[in-house]
Amino acid sequence: MTVPIQDRPTDTLREQVIDQLIMNYAHGVISEAAFERRLGIAMESQDNQEIIDQIKDLEMKVDDDFIKSKRANLGINHASAPVEEEERLTSILGSSERSGRWQVPKRIKVYSLLGGTNLDFTDAEFFHPNVTIDVTCILGNETIYVPENVNVVSKAFSVMGSVENSAPSISTRNAPTITIEGTVIMGGIEVTVKRTIKEKFQAFAENFKQMLQ
């Protein structure tokens, strides 16, 4: 017996629809404009019927090549070997940065005095399921970029400063968790997403399309 569309888990259905949209766009079945329009509806709608309607005229299904490519492009980057337990970043009247493809230690200690630090986890490799960022920020600014497929918990204490977490976490319990601790004095910490999940889907679709040509 087939389960009615409205009784199916919305997130699971949404993922299947998005996969099929990317597959058909990459193979030239639908145009870029149609793909972006349907992708937007599939991601934002909470109505199962509206979501499934975005692929009702698309017969091409995902294959093994798509699944492998998706795992490589959209999955969490896991380090293949143990990494350092701790790393320190110090900025005094200057700046420090960690970005690109780097291995995330279990604890990152950040000290800023009249300076700033940028931590970019967008393409980072995770080995530890729980990562702690221990911040001491005095008259400085810290910017932390995180992917949407990790959990973020902010516990930092602020004195005449600010801690802003604008990164919506849509991950599962099995995803890595980044916990931000420490003290901010007359400074600021901003946690944000550098590239949204929709932008990642669009980039993956373009990459997969190029791979097929």
Describe this protein's structure:
The chain has 213 residues and is an alpha/beta fold. It has two domains: 5-76 and 197-212, no CATH class; 86-192, no CATH class. The protein has helices at residues 10-26, 32-44, 48-53, 64-74, 197-212; strands spanning 86-92, 95-98, 103-104, 107-113, 116-120, 125-126, 130-138, 141-145, 151-154, 157-159, 162-165, 177-185, 188-192. The strands form three sheets. Strands 1, 4, 7, 9, 10 and 12 form a six-stranded parallel β-sheet that branches. The protein has a five-stranded parallel β-sheet with strand order 2-5-8-13-11, with no helix packed on it. A two-stranded parallel sheet has the order 3-6. It is elongated and about 60 Å long. The relative contact order is 0.15. The mean pLDDT is 88.
Brief digest:
The radius of gyration is 20 Å and the shape is elongated. Strands 1, 4, 7, 9, 10 and 12 form a 6-stranded parallel beta sheet that branches.
List the helices and strands and how they pair.
Elements: H1 10-26, H2 32-44, H3 48-53, H4 64-74, E1 86-92, E2 95-98, E3 103-104, E4 107-113, E5 116-120, E6 125-126, E7 130-138, E8 141-145, E9 151-154, E10 157-159, E11 162-165, E12 177-185, E13 188-192, H5 197-212
Parallel strand pairs: 1-4, 2-5, 3-6, 4-7, 5-8, 7-12, 8-13, 9-12, 10-12, 11-13
Helix pairs in contact: 1-2, 1-5, 4-5
Main beta sheet: 6 strands, parallel
Evaluate the radius of gyration: 20 Å
Please count the helical segments: 5
Give the quaternary arrangement of the chains: single chain
Helices and strands, in order, run as HHHHEEEEEEEEEEEEEH
Structure summary, number of beta strands? 13
What is the first-to-last residue Cα distance?
40 Å
Alpha-beta classification: alpha/beta
Unreliably modeled segments:
none
